[in-house]
Amino acid sequence: xxxxxxxxxxxxxxxxxxxxxxxxxxxxxxxxxxxxxxxxxxxxxxxxxxxxxxxxxxxxxxxxxxxxxxxxxxxxxxxxxxxxxxxxxxxxxxxxxxxxxxxxxxxxxxxxxxxxxxxxxxxxxxxxxxxxxxxxxxxxxxxxxxxxxxxxxxxxxxxxxxxxxxxxxxxxxxxxxxxxxxxxxxxxxxxxxxxxxxxxxxxxxxxxxxxxxxxxxxxxxxxxxxxxxxxxxxxxxxxxxxxxxxxxxxxxxxxxxxxxxxxxxxxxxxxxxxxxxxxxxxxxxxxxxxxxxxxxxxxxxxxx
Length: 304
Hints:
mainly alpha
């Protein structure tokens, strides 16, 4: 009994890390845009869904292999993110925060409508590139897709971390996000850097969308719930902290799975699958009330 419970526990941890890796990617995209514009991009989930559909179209209708389609989709998403900033966000970025929020909500509706118009609302299937095999690791059965998802998510996060820390472009991106006025004084092209940030956020969303589709099915609304979990991850980790977004995503993924695990053994037996999304919303509310800057975020300091 104890051995079976431990095995189930470890499987839930691995599965939680896989789903948490996806939340972390989308949360990181939210943080990048928030740091550069001061607002939440409500269209981030729809942008990820559009990217997943582009990958599916290349594979299903143009006979591309998964990884070439994956790479092409990343490029298309990156360029598309820059284009959205240039054509839609830049004209309003000096206006009120509310105006930018309304624009992102408009983007959400427009992208969702385009996906339905272009590919209909019928669910499609994007096959996992990692196959359907499962592996027995010390008695713990781990799906190949979970292992692949964790590996890809962590790999993307590490590459992005290296970009921000060790390259001139990364340093310029950080400077433009933290203090755009001073960045302009030292020659940083802030508008271009902000556009690059949107491109990176779109790229991260594309990865999240392509990793989500094989497990939940390709659907115009498939990222709606994932975006809520990513919000919770970003708020929990700190909306201005990229590292916090990653930590928050992994914590949310494991926590929700742990609640499901404990409910099977008589603890938290009130928790059901239908309560996963409300629990994420409850986490957002609790963090905003108790620690608004999150685990790793910096508290806002106002000088008077």
